C-alpha cells in the first residue's frame, strides 16, 4: 500500500478502475451502500479520510435507460450522500464522471471548457453528480473519462473484452460511426494520484490520448493479438440498444498526463490477457 494515500477512502474499489487502486481504505457495495445516507455518514465519520475517491456507479448505459430511477438513485443520490459526508469532515472529494455528459455534436474532442448537454439517462445522472460535487465541495476533483478498459478477464465487461472474446469467430462487427478516446483504467488511477500529489482542484479530462471509432479500436485489438478474424465496419443502427450513444465522446485534456490509447491498449493486452506467450491466442479466456 502507498502510505502517501493511506487516509484515502475509495468507493467501488472492486470494480474495473478500483482494481488498480492499491492504496487507502477500499470499500465495495457490500461494505458501503452509497445509497444509504445514514450508513455513508457513519462510515466516513468513523474512517475520517482526508480524501474520498468515488468510483462506485451504475455504468451500464442501457440499464440506466431502462431504469432511469435506479440510474439517478445510484449515480446522483449516491453521489450526494458521499459528497455531503466528505464535506462534513473536510475531506477532498474526487468524482469520476464521463464523456457521456456531452451530446456528441462537436466535430473535435471535447475540452474542459465545453458545455455539457447529456442526452441519455446515464449521462444526465452523472452530470447531476458533477453539479452536486461543485455545489457541496470546496476542495474537489471532477475527472471525466470514457471508453474504459482494464481489469483483465475477471473485471473487464466492456467493449475491449467483448471483442477479445469474439476473436475465435471468422468475423466481428464493430460500429464505425461513434468516436471516443479509449482509456486504460490503470492510467486513470495514476493520473488521479498525480493530481492529488500536486494538490490540484477543479475539473479535468483524462482519457487515452487520441480518438478512434469502435471499429478502429477493434482493428487495433486484432492487430495486437495477431488475429485473422475479419473486423467488419457497421452503422450503429445494426445493434438494437436501449440507449442512444453519443456520436463523439472524444476528450481533450488541458494536462498532458496520458499516453496514446494504442500504447496503453498494447500493454493491457500483453500483460493482462495473454501474458507469457504473446502469440498464443488460446490463452485468452472465452
* Percent helix: 25-40%
CATH superfamily of the domain at 3-153 and 180-212 and 246-260: NAD(P)-binding Rossmann-like Domain
Structural class: alpha/beta
Strand content: 15-25%
Radius of gyration: 19 Å
Helical run tally: 9
* Largest sheet geometry: 6 strands, parallel
Oligomer: single chain
Known CATH architecture of the domain at 3-153 and 180-212 and 246-260: 3-Layer(aba) Sandwich
Order of helices and strands: EEHEHHEHEEHHEEEHEEHEEH
Question: What's the number of extended β-strand segments?
Answer: 13
N/C terminus separation? 32 Å
Shape: globular
Low-confidence stretches: 282-286
- Strand arrangement in the largest pleated sheet: 2-1-3-4-5-10
CATH hierarchy class name of the domain at 3-153 and 180-212 and 246-260: Alpha Beta
